[in-house]
Specification:
- The protein has helices at about 10-25, 35-45, 60-70, 85-95, 105-120, 155-165, 175-185, 190-205, and strands at about 5, 25-30, 50, 75-80, 100, 130-135, 135-140, 145, 150, 170-175, 215, 220-225.
- With about 220 residues, it is of the alpha/beta class.
- It folds into two domains: about 5-120, 3-Layer(aba) Sandwich (Rossmann fold); about 130-225, Arc Repressor Mutant, subunit A, CATH 1.10.10.
- A five-stranded parallel sheet has the order 2-1-3-4-5, with helices on both faces.
- The chain is globular, with a radius of gyration of 18 Å.
- The relative contact order is 0.11.
- Residues about 125-130 have low confidence and may be disordered.
């Protein structure tokens, strides 16, 4: 059964989300504080996390940052009452997969949940199995990466970006294409979001003597294999 973790401090909102998700057939775990939610994320495997930004204990941003740093790569949907673009961009840069602004319709949330679960549950390597990209050995099916047989932490979003670049290797991939195919949001985060992810990927893929992810100025990026 698909398991979803919901971290939300408003009792009525939390109860409503849990009841409706369980009605849809999901197993649901929940927490009302950021610190409790972080512990829940670390100690329980899940398929998706719904995370409110405004939480007691730790903010949703802090929970997401610490979870990603500890190796939790589960897809995250942020719930926020803020409409500020910078808040949305910040969440995406910290590793969120999507966000939805309160108030929202249950139908919209369920559609976003199903879209993310479809992307993350489908086979990802396209039959390539374990492949070598720069200094990394990568398996997109299992979301695992290593360097010299030592595990390397990549966020779920970093895997998706790297996979898309790999599928279009030696071809130019625009920022808009990455935003559409990796984030798939109605709202488009700024190109700075993509740039920041690319910087982190380069640190994990490229070596001093071999550059694989290059910038094509005025267009986007290219993965050279």
């Amino acid at each position: 059964m698909t398991r979803i973790i919901v971290i939300e401090d408003e009792p009525a909102m939390l109860s409503g989300l849990c009841d409706n998700l369980e009605f849809e057939g999901y197993e649901v775990l929940s927490a009302q504080r950021g610190d409790d939610g972080l512990k829940l994320m670390k100690s329980n495997a899940s398929d998706l996390i719904i995370l409110d930004v405004m939480l007691p204990g730790l903010s949703g941003f802090d929970v997401l940052k610490q979870a990603r740093a500890s190796g939790v790569n589960t897809p995250v949907i942020l719930l926020t009452a803020k409409g500020e673009e910078l808040d949305k961009v910040r969440g995406l840069e910290l590793g969120a997969d999507d966000y939805i602004t309160k108030p929202f319709s249950l139908r919209e949330l369920l559609a976003r949940i199903k879209a993310i679960l479809r992307r993350t549950s489908a086979p990802n390597s396209g039959g390539h199995g374990t492949i070598h990209i720069g200094k990394l050995t990568v398996c997109f099916d299992t979301f695992e990466a290593s360097e010299n047989n030592k595990p390397v932490k990549l966020s779920h979003k970093e895997f998706e970006i790297l996979q898309h670049l790999y599928q279009r290797s030696n071809q130019i991939v625009t920022r808009d294409e990455l935003l559409d195919n990796v984030w798939g949001l109605d709202y488009q985060p700024s190109s700075r979001t993509v740039d920041n992810f690319i910087v982190r990927l380069r640190q994990k893929v490229d070596t001093k003597d071999s550059v694989h992810i290059i910038t094509v100025h005025g267009f986007g990026y290219k993965l050279i294999l």
